[in-house]
Amino acid sequence: MRKTEMNEQSQLSLLVCERLQQLGLKQSEFCRMTGFDQGLLSKIQSSIITNLSLESVLRLSVGLRIPPTQILGLIDRLDLHELVLTAYEAESEGLMGFQSDIGSLASAGSVESNFFAKA
User: For site-directed labelling of 23, which of 41, 51, 70, 93 has its Cα 20 to 30 A away?
Assistant: First the structure.
């Protein structure tokens, strides 16, 4: 986890503090509502931590009601957004292929007979 120099408030810290204020939430309320770790939120607000896991980014994004790309951009990790999109794209393509495979197996007979016929 990357740390900032003393007395320097990170862009992430500014965003989180501003959004919590706009939403009228205290740190403890936000954490109770979202399941976000209160110690981690405190370190983010104090600019002690400026690098987050993907899970933390997503939880923070949902809780603050902002797009995850806004947070990922601030921590210089937009590559994680691309990674998630690629994973979902692959999952979608894989499921479609899997569903068509099931359809052809159903029309050709059972999975076992199809498997042994190829062997």
Answer: 51
Q: Are both 61 and 92 inside the same structural domain?
A: no
For every residue of 7-58, DSSP letters joined together read TPPPHHHHHHHHHHHHHT--HHHHHHHH---HHHHHHHHTTS-----HHHHH
Return d(Cα 65, Cα 82) in angstroms, integer. Answer: 20
If one counts every other C-beta atom within 10 angstroms of the C-beta of residue 107, the result is 7
> What's the rounded Cα separation, in Å, for the pair 9 and 11?
7
The pLDDT value recorded for residue 62 is 96
Q: 3-class DSSP state for residue 119? A: coil
Q: How far is the C-alpha of 9 from the C-alpha of 78, rounded, in Å?
A: 21
Residue ranges making up the domain that contains 15 = 11-76
CA 98 → CA 86, 101, 108, distances in Å? 18, 5, 15
- Asked which of 1-5, 31-35, 38-42 is least confident by mean pLDDT, the reply is 1-5
